[in-house]
Amino acid sequence: MIHLKKLDELYLMREAAQLVSKTLCMLAKEIKPGVTTSFLDKLGGEFIRDHGAKPGFLGLYGFPKNLCISPNSEVVHGIPNDKPLENGDIVSVDCGTFLNGFYGDHAYTFEVGEVSPEVKKLLKITKESLYKGIEQCVRGKRVGDISDAIQTYCEREGYGVVRELVGHGLGRKMHEDPQVPNYGRKGSGKVLKDGIVLAIEPMINLGTEKVKFHKDGWTVTTLDKQPSAHFEHDVAIINGKPVLLSTFKYIHEALGIVSDEEASFQYDW
Ligand code: MG
Ligand code: MG
Asked: Does 261 reside within a domain?
């Protein structure tokens, strides 16, 4: 069942989502060669608690850490550990918060030092595909329109679109209906309505779409061990149109990136 949110609930959800945005910004400044993912996890957990919230992933289905941090060939659900990041790595940080009775959940894949042009392009296209999906979040369209937009944009580049893991509805639970796959048919699936909140999260591989689930019960890697990128935003439909509850603007400020990618999804409501 899809839980449609009222405006007052959406304001609260935006606070939860924006705390994720600020946590990711804080971490953006710390990500460099030599830093361990467990150190980033500790900083992230402290930052979230200092802002009166709980880390949304800690204990969720038994997850052992604050954040999911997935370098290189890890697609998602990486467990922070003591292995230092190296120059040329990429690292996806997926952060959840629980604040005001609602969850925020979004993710960004960062470059560590100097990254190859091939991998830079994977990050660029994956992030662009997220906005292609968000553009489809219009009242009366369907979930399959989001899925198709992401899949088409990424497969055109020859990338692998992960099938086993999907985006989702978001609210008082981390994972609500509907599921939002990153592949699918236009015009299929549930109809989109005002008040729906979706966590849209393309997980895109440089090589094969096939993934391996590891024995630790969490880590998912690409089968061919090539890099995988992951970007996620929290999006609401308000007055028929997509509105971002989360933002990458703080990350962009921290990294000196100039971008107007969110401009169409950031109007007053
Ligand atoms: Mg997430
Ligand atoms: Mg999610």
From this structure: yes
- CA of residue 113 to ligand 2 center, whole Å: 26
Smallest-distance ligand from the CA of 24: 1
* The pTM of the whole model exceeds 0.90: yes
Provide the phi-psi class of 172: left if phi over 0, else alpha when psi is between -120 and 50, else beta: alpha
Segment 116-166, tens digit of pLDDT: 999 999 999 999 999 999 999 999 999 999 999 999 999 999 999 999 999
Distance 200 CA to ligand 2 centre (A): 7
> What 3-state class would DSSP assign to 220?
strand
> Ligand 2: distance of its center to the CA of 30 in Å?
23
∠ CA 256-261-264, rounded to 5°: 140
Tokens of 123: 């990050």
Domain tally for the chain?
A: 1
Decide if 227 is inside a domain.
Answer: yes
Q: Position 37: which residue type?
A: T
Residues, beta carbon < 5 Å, ion ligand 2: 105, 199
Assigned domain for 161 exists:
yes
What is the structure's pLDDT at 129? Answer: 98
